[in-house]
Design brief:
This protein is an alpha/beta fold. It is built from 8 helices and 9 strands. α3 links the parallel β3 and β4.
Length: about 230
């Protein structure tokens, strides 16, 4: 077993595993117990009372976090030549079409989000086997297949995230960095949870939000009182 560092041991002693914290308490505590030398990501896990195998209980959506995720999001725009200037002006990191299709076929997927337009979706769709498993496939529902390329790039760069429930009924997403102030962490989590509440399937029975936890890259999860994250 790995030996706990003094800092880690002190941090773990602060956690009461039987307690459900308010989001405000959790935002403060997660900053105290994170002992990494780098600026760790903050993650939220939400366990939902849905059966993701049923199409009418699939929970997926997008939300723009008020303070972004703190990450630099690398964006590839795959578009026709007439849209290239618009994409570059909006801040896309990579812009093009055929050359990127070839690069991706060769195994290159060094981006976080791919945005495209309806007229080239047939070409991009052929990359589904590569992009699908990596969560990079553009999708009209998440706003990444659109004619308004500039708006899509701006939203992604501003902190728009795409999330969906996994086969275990859990949504896992990043909501910021440990360096964020407590207020910013609280506001990002509340915005995210408000969107999850809006997406509640009418066919879901019983308790919809079963549990919420907040953790950083290297910290244990802190259980959050679900009522405290009501926006």
């Amino acid at each position: 077993m790995t030996k706990l560092t003094k800092n880690k041991k002190l941090a773990l002693e602060k956690i009461d595993a039987s307690k459900q914290y308010t989001i405000e308490e959790a935002a403060k505590l997660v900053k105290e117990i994170t002992t990494t030398k780098f600026d760790a990501s903050l993650d939220v896990d939400v366990r939902l009372g849905v059966d993701p195998r049923k199409a009418n209980q699939m929970v997926r959506g997008v939300v723009t976090l008020p303070h972004g995720t703190g990450k630099v999001t690398r964006v590839l725009v795959m578009c026709t030549p007439d849209k290239e200037e618009e994409a570059k002006a909006a801040g896309a990191d990579y812009v093009g079409l055929d050359e990127y299709i070839e690069k991706i076929k060769g195994g290159w997927t060094d981006v976080d989000v791919i945005i495209t337009m309806p007229s080239v979706m047939a070409k991009v769709g052929a990359l589904g086997r590569i992009l699908g498993p990596r969560g990079l496939m553009p999708n009209p529902k998440s706003g990444t297949v659109t004619m308004d390329i500039a708006k899509a790039v701006n939203e992604v760069k501003a902190g728009k995230i795409d999330f969906k429930v996994d086969k275990y009924g859990i949504i896992h997403t990043s909501v910021g960095k440990v360096s964020f102030t407590e207020d910013k962490i609280v506001e990002n989590v509340k915005e995210f949870m408000a969107m999850i509440m809006k997406l509640k399937p009418s066919s879901a029975k019983g308790t919809y939000v079963k549990s919420v936890s907040l953790s950083s890259t290297m910290s244990p999860g802190l259980r959050i009182e679900p009522k405290s994250v009501d926006a």
